[in-house]
Fold each of these.
Amino acid sequence: MQTVRAPATSANLGSGFDVFGVALDRPADVVRVEKADRTTIEMTGVGSQYIPEDPEKNVVGAVAEALDAPAHIQIDKGVRPSSGLGSSAASSAAAAVALNALYDRGRSRRELVSVAAEGEAVVSGEAHADNVAPALLGGFTVARDGAVTTVDASIPLVACLPEIAVSTRDARAVVPESASMADVVHTVGAAATLSVGMCRDDPELVGTGMDERVVTPARADLITGYDAVRAAALDAGATGVTVSGAGPAVIAACREADQRHVAAAMVDAFAGVDVDSRAYQTRVSEGATLY
Ligand SMILES: Nc1ncnc2c1ncn2[C@@H]1O[C@H](COP(=O)(O)OP(=O)(O)O)[C@@H](O)[C@H]1O
Ligand SMILES: N[C@@H](CCOP(=O)(O)O)C(=O)O
């Protein structure tokens, strides 16, 4: 038997649509695997009642197939599905590490990124690596053209998850097909600023670099209360606020000293529009851990 904990992740960070991702220190999924003749899946934990146990429909089924590693797979969900916090990626990454160890496949963490991305294709139709890369490798990750660059950053973050469901598939449908040159230039500047901020562990630069004008406004419209939550977080000291992944979670960068205030302000602002939410006071952290 092998057991792996894989963390929630936040993709995009505004300016890095489909490219940037960070591992969060909480919440996380825990996956246990045992060798079997065919793959079976058992789900427990947050939102597990909504996730299919059929290996054809659960992301870990595709991961087991990609590694030719049939197993009984128990998934204890800590990351709520359809959260914008890389729920499916946490399971995919944990299963990839666990099955690689169980069957002694000898794949490196970097090699497992494309394996875990096969799981993402099951739910979003495309094999995105922007969540599975940080879930496997930890830190801040830049995933493009099949290559991944990582930075071991440690930035305080608040991830506020409202009781609203937004599926990644639906949120991709609202992404505009084109952008003006002015918006492209703005996004490049923001992405570069954010990357420098990660290299320097500077929450001010990271927050400033979250600003993005093309994808984020379209997705913010799917999140009840987004503008009020963003304004409240900035008022409480957040250095930047954006949609986490495809939403509905909203992520704020901040200094350590402001983290509690930012978390409270975001929950209160969602409550102001009659939406219950939960704030995770978290930070950029490690990737999947094999026990
Ligand atoms: N092991 C799994 N964990 C989470 N979601 C899964 C899993 N397997 C399949 N899914 C499906 O994936 C979808 C959630 O994925 P996604 O929208 O990408 O979530 P998130 O935004 O948190 O990353 C749901 O439809 C869920 O049923
Ligand atoms: N780049 C993807 C990331 C989706 O992240 P998730 O946590 O919502 O699954 C996108 O923006 O569609």
Amino acid sequence: METVFFLIRHASHDRLGSVLCGRMAGVTLGDRGRAEADALAQRLSAQRLSAVLSSPLERAQETAAPIAARQGLAVTVDPALNEIDLGAWSGKRFEELHGDPAWELWNRARTHARPPAALPPPAGSPTAGSGGESMAEAQTRIAAALDRLRRANPGGRLALVSHADLIKAALAHALGLPLDFHSRFEISPASVSVVVAGDWGLKVHSINEGAA
Ligand SMILES: O=C(O)[C@H](O)COP(=O)(O)O
């Protein structure tokens, strides 16, 4: 039996395009984002969803809430849908990052680049030298979640509210696209990308639907 996944990027917030928010707390939807989330919930009301899952971050849960409410469902928070751990870059303005060689590498070589650690590791720590989460690790996380959710929900139609890079990683996994090509397609705020899963694997039905 097939399981349909509606991969939804959270709606707009006021720091979009100026701050690399990552997992920082307190990033909530503004007026525009709430209007986008309501419009998205209205569009999705034509679908019979069986579950609405969300990243733990506020911007995702606030996007998921009106979608779930319209369907008479509760939002289930799933840590597997969380944003990539961007370590020391979380909360930095994009203008601060420009010119940083590690940031340039992150943008051109996602297959092996890794954000820097948020805090220097203690001296002698076995984690010395480790950083944030690589996109490959995030892809493993979302791919495992899709497989787990598919097995638990045969015939289900699940909305998963997450983040741009997580959705790109999921689509790249389904398409067999190298992560270095992450910028070859767009995942906009409040957009929907549809992936169908079966015993045979994953099939991409659409990408970035409903983008403004
Ligand atoms: O701010 C970030 O973390 C990224 O630039 C975009 O991620 P998002 O999908 O959570 O906005």
